[in-house]
Design brief:
This protein has a domain at 46-53 and 66-92 and 145-353: Histone deacetylase domain (Arginase, Chain A, 3-Layer(aba) Sandwich). 36% of the residues lie in helices and 9% in strands. It has twelve helices and seven strands. Strand 4, helix 9 (244-247) and strand 5 form a beta-alpha-beta unit. The longest helix is centred in the middle third of the chain and has 28 residues, at 132-159.
Length: 360
């Protein structure tokens, strides 16, 4: 699965807004019969590839998001022996335009041909002055790999027989079918839900556990009337996006005050997750594991310690394992440079607690 992107050199990229025809080659093209990455029980169900990293002449530093977070986690997992070599893990192909259009509107996809629109989504204003071919290669293309990674990780959790998978990226929960925002250009969670529902594996009760500090308004808008999806969203209600319409889709909303600490956070999580599991009896869990809940995060404004994040992740995985429910973990937000180390430590803790079953 691969987008055909304009491969022109820097001198060939025009600064002009141009016409739609001028911009057509700068966006992904349709490709028939995309290949799928095979799933094997013998591989570690962690999904990553170096192309996840956003590198754009330093402009990525204008947003607090750690554009190299996935790569930093990957290196830490290798250093600590969970990943022995690159062949152990899954590397996603780039999602195709045809696949994106399974959820996204053509109007929205066309809007990404304009750097002004992408600059608003990425929250990096100088991007509006950058030729769209550069924006495609340096920002949107990494996000397309991560979006494909979320779908591949869900397939691995479901089909490998191991019952879990982790995408070292993704979790773009502010993006819906027709609108991006909050650094989220593609609706990977909605795409993953639709893929699971049509997989032929009998997945008809999907629980989304969104523990990012922000409300997951994108997929909530998309899945508003889907009775086969139960949304548990636990977020700081005083911060972006404060989307009251999207809130109507949440079956169990846990609204947190700024500076909520470990004790209150974990107490509410234990109570609400157990109630949600008992009420809905899901047969798949999508876990949006944002680390912007960490104390000091400039956007999340909660006061959760690294130990609290590790305990949180352990509780979610333990609940899934005890009920034999496949779970896929997406990284979502996290705006401290220390997030990568906390996430790696949490994954290693899951391994040490025997919550990441592996082939013998």
């Amino acid at each position: 699965m691969c987008f055909r992107l304009n491969t022109a050199s820097a001198t060939d990229c025009s600064m002009s807004s141009g016409t739609d025809d001028d911009k057509e080659d700068e966006s992904p093209q349709r490709e028939a019969n995309p290949a799928t990455v095979p799933i094997s029980r013998d591989r570690l169900p962690i999904v990553y590839r170096p192309e996840y990293g956003v590198k754009f002449l330093g402009l990525q530093k204008l947003h607090p998001f750690d554009a190299a977070k996935g790569g930093n986690i990957y290196r830490l997992l290798k250093t600590n022996g969970l990943i022995r070599n690159d062949a152990d893990v899954y590397a996603p192909d780039e999602i195709t335009l045809e696949e994106l259009l399974e959820v996204h509107t053509k109007r929205y996809m066309d809007s990404l041909k304009w750097s002004l629109n992408v600059a608003k989504i990425a929250e990096i204003p100088p991007l509006l002055f950058v030729p769209n071919c550069f924006v495609q290669r340096s920002y949107l293309r990494p996000m397309r790999f991560q979006t494909s990674g979320s779908m591949l990780a869900a397939r691995a959790a479901l089909q490998s027989g191991l019952g879990w998978a982790i995408n070292l990226g993704g979790g773009f929960h502010h993006c819906s079918a027709d609108r991006g925002g909050g650094f989220c250009p593609y609706a990977d969670i909605t795409l993953t839900v639709k893929m699971l529902q049509t997989s032929g594996n009998g997945i008809d009760r999907i629980l989304i556990v969104d523990l990012d500090a922000h409300q997951g308004n994108g997929y909530e808008r998309d899945l508003m009337h889907d009775a086969g999806v139960f949304i548990l969203d636990m977020y700081n209600y005083r911060i972006y996006p404060r989307d009251h319409t999207a809130k109507l889709a949440i079956r169990r909303a846990v609204e947190l005050k700024p500076h909520t600490d470990d004790a209150e956070y974990l107490r509410k999580l234990r109570n609400c997750l157990q109630r949600s599991l008992a009420e809905f009896e899901p047969n798949f869990i999508i876990y949006n594991a944002g680390t912007d809940i960490l104390k000091g995060d400039p956007l999340g404004l909660l006061d959760i310690t690294p130990e609290g994040v590790i305990e949180r992740d352990e509780f979610v995985f333990r609940c899934a394992q005890e009920r034999s429910i496949p779970v896929v973990m997406l990284l979502s937000g996290g705006y401290l440079r220390s997030s990568a180390r906390v996430i790696a430590s949490s994954i290693l803790n899951l391994r040490d607690k025997a919550l990441l079953p592996m082939a013998e």
